[in-house]
């Protein structure tokens, strides 16, 4: 069954204030649509349940990328092509630029937005491991005001998040303090391009006198939503990278992940690959530290 446009309303207020006014007047009634790369697929297949859509496309407030002294603030409607082309992101937040290159084709990257990728809430979201590794914060906005939450607390379950019915994801805040960190991002999929992740891992770490002083591990496809691997981080924090430390991190990771069997992979495969990716990152850290 194909979608029927007559079953949906689409409005385009053209301003952020107009969108927020609409959401405030009928909380939960309107579904925001930006690039539409997910919603239009659902519409074409006759699976788009949202009867009322409000367009965010072309609203400058939502597409800006602002470089501040302490952070880079990415508007929720910035596209993945915007991210790939941004010089500061490429230089200081290369994991995000790399993740942006994974999003479908160039045509997809020209339409798909960072905010849409997050709100869609796929456990395999390409941008999420990088944002988790960079300790990103999410700014939410409504007619009532603004609030910020750590991205690691944004997802509340499979395809669920902490957005209130009248709220909009406004921006993603990325600290500018990772230039001296070791950084890592790897995605494993069926193909080299245009593939949904079977497993992905993003990581940042700071070493001091051979010991791990800071570490963040963000994963996709290992839980019902993109998640920080807090137990594995805890097993590594303050430790030198020895065989015993790596084994402890393996056990911690396997204890906290909750992968599933699905059409793309099995839970066992995902767990094994996650351990291998963590190994790759830790061994890379040890090699670089020894030189």
Give an account of the 3D structure.
By secondary structure, this protein is α+β, with helices and mostly antiparallel strands. It folds into three domains: 5-55, Uridine Diphospho-n-acetylenolpyruvylglucosamine Reductase, domain 2 (2-Layer Sandwich), CATH 3.30.43; 62-175, Uridine Diphospho-n-acetylenolpyruvylglucosamine Reductase, domain 3 (2-Layer Sandwich); 182-290, 2-Layer Sandwich (Enolase-like, domain 1), CATH 3.30.390.50. The protein is built from twelve helices and 14 strands. The protein has helices at residues 16-25, 39-44, 60-63, 80-85, 87-92, 94-100, 106-111, 114-120, 128-133, 230-236, 243-256, 267-290; strands at 9-11, 31-33, 52-55, 65-67, 71-75, 137-142, 145-150, 155-157, 160-161, 168-175, 182-188, 199-208, 211-220, 227-228. The strands form four sheets. Strands 4-5-10-6-7 form a five-stranded antiparallel sheet. Helix 11 packs antiparallel against helix 12 (267-290). The radius of gyration is 20 Å and the shape is globular. The chain starts with 8 loop residues before the first strand and ends with a helix.
Write the layout of secondary structure elements.
Blueprint (H helix, E strand, L loop, with lengths): L8 E3 L4 H10 L5 E3 L5 H6 L7 E4 L4 H4 L1 E3 L3 E5 L4 H6 L1 H6 L1 H7 L5 H6 L2 H7 L7 H6 L3 E6 L2 E6 L4 E3 L2 E2 L6 E8 L6 E7 L10 E10 L2 E10 L6 E2 L1 H7 L6 H14 L10 H24 L1
Parallel strand pairs: 1-3, 2-3
Antiparallel strand pairs: 4-5, 5-10, 6-7, 6-10, 8-9, 11-12, 12-13, 13-14
Helix pairs in contact: 10-11, 11-12
């Amino acid at each position: 069954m194909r979608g029927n446009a007559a079953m949906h309303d689409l409005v385009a207020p053209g301003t952020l204030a107009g969108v927020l006014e609409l959401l405030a007047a009928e909380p939960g009634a309107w579904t925001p649509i930006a690039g539409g790369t997910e919603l239009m697929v659902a519409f074409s297949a006759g699976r788009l349940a949202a009867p009322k859509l409000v367009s965010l496309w072309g609203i400058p407030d939502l597409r800006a990328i602002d470089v501040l002294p302490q952070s880079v603030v990415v508007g929720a409607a910035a596209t993945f092509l915007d991210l790939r082309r941004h010089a500061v992101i490429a230089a200081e937040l290369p994991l995000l630029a790399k993740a942006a290159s994974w999003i479908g084709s160039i045509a997809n990257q020209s339409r798909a937005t960072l905010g849409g990728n997050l709100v869609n809430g796929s456990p395999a979201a390409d941008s999420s491991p990088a944002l988790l590794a960079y300790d990103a914060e999410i700014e939410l906005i409504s007619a009532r005001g603004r609030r910020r939450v750590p991205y690691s607390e944004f997802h509340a379950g499979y395809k669920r998040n902490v957005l209130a019915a009248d709220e909009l994801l406004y921006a993603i805040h990325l600290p500018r303090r990772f230039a001296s960190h070791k950084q890592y991002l790897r995605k494993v999929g069926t193909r080299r391009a245009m593939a949904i992740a079977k497993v992905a891992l993003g990581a940042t770490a700071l070493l001091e006198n051979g010991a791990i002083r800071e570490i963040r591990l963000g994963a996709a496809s290992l839980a019902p939503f993109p998640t920080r691997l807090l137990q594995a981080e805890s097993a590594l924090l303050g430790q030198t990278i020895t065989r015993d430390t790596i084994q402890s991190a393996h056990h911690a990771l396997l204890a906290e992940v909750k992968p599933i069997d699905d059409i793309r992979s099995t839970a066992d495969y995902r767990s094994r690959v996650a351990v291998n990716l963590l190994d790759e990152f830790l061994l890379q850290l040890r090699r670089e530290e020894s030189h």
